[in-house]
Amino acid sequence: MGISLNTLLSNIEKTRVEMVELAHRYGFSNPNVVQCSQKLDSLLNVYDNFGKQ
User: Fold this and answer.
1) Which residues contact 36 (CB under 8 A, 6 or more apart)?
2) What's the rounded Cα separation, in Å, for the pair 23 and 32?
3) Dihedral sign for Cα atoms in the order 8, 49, 40, 31
4) Which letter, b or e, does each residue of 7-35 get, where b requires 16 or more Cβ atoms within 10 Å of its Cβ?
5) Structural contact between residues 42 and 16, judged by C-beta atoms closer than 8 angstroms
């Protein structure tokens, strides 16, 4: 069984907020911001494919 849609959406929002906060604190090119952005991209890809399988 996979992740629920509500959990996925919650994780996406938490990661988005974290990324914005990190970007304001350290700048957009900081490695921590880039890593968080990549995590968000991955979560969004999961969301995009949600229910297609």
Assistant:
1) 15, 18, 19, 22
2) 9
3) positive
4) ebeebbeebeeebeebbeeeeeeeeebee
5) no
Query: Tokens 């906060």 correspond to what residue?
Result: 21
Q: Which two tokens stand for residue 18?
A: 């974290």
Q: Rg of the Cα trace of the chain? A: 12
Handedness of CA 30, 32, 33, 39 (dihedral sign): positive
- Whether 40 contacts 17, CB under 8 Å: no
Q: Tens digit of pLDDT for each residue in 13-43? A: 999 999 999 999 999 999 999 999 999 999 9
